[in-house]
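Work Package 4 report. The design task specified in the project plan requires that, given a folded chain encoded as C-alpha cells, an amino acid be chosen for each position. We show below one input record used in the internal validation round.
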C-alpha cells in the first residue's frame, strides 16, 4: 500500500514536534514538572476533602445505627415491663405499628 497524503502530513508534524533543541526540551520538561506539582497539590486537597466526606457519612451511619439499636432495646424493656404488670398468666401483647398515645384512625363505613 502506498502512503496517502494525510498520513505523510502526520509523520511530518510528529517529526517537527520531536525535533527540539536541548534547551527547548529542558524548558518544556520544567514546565511539565511545574504543572504536575500544581496538580499534586490539588489532588492532595481533593483527597483530603473526599476522605472527610466519607468520614462524616460513616459517622452519620453509626449514629443512625445506634439510635435504631437503642430503640429496639427500649422497646424490649417496655414489652417486658408490660408483661410483668399484666401478671404471670397473661398472654404477651401483640406488637402494634402505631406508637402508644397516637390517635386512632377511623375508617368510614361503606354505604350501598
Amino acid at each position: 500500500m502506498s502512503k496517502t497524503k494525510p498520513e505523510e502530513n502526520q509523520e511530518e508534524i510528529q517529526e517537527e514536534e520531536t525535533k527540539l533543541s536541548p534547551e527547548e526540551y529542558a524548558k518544556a520538561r520544567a514546565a511539565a514538572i511545574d504543572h504536575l506539582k500544581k496538580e499534586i497539590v490539588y489532588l492532595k486537597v481533593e483527597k483530603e476533602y473526599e476522605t472527610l466526606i466519607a468520614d462524616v457519612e460513616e459517622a452519620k451511619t453509626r449514629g443512625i445505627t445506634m439510635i435504631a439499636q437503642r430503640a429496639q432495646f427500649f422497646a424490649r424493656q417496655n414489652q417486658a415491663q408490660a408483661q410483668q404488670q399484666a401478671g404471670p398468666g397473661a398472654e404477651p401483647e401483640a406488637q402494634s405499628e402505631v406508637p402508644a398515645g397516637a390517635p386512632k384512625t377511623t375508617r368510614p363505613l361503606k354505604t350501598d
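The longest helix spans residues 22-86. Validation will be extended to a larger panel in the next phase.
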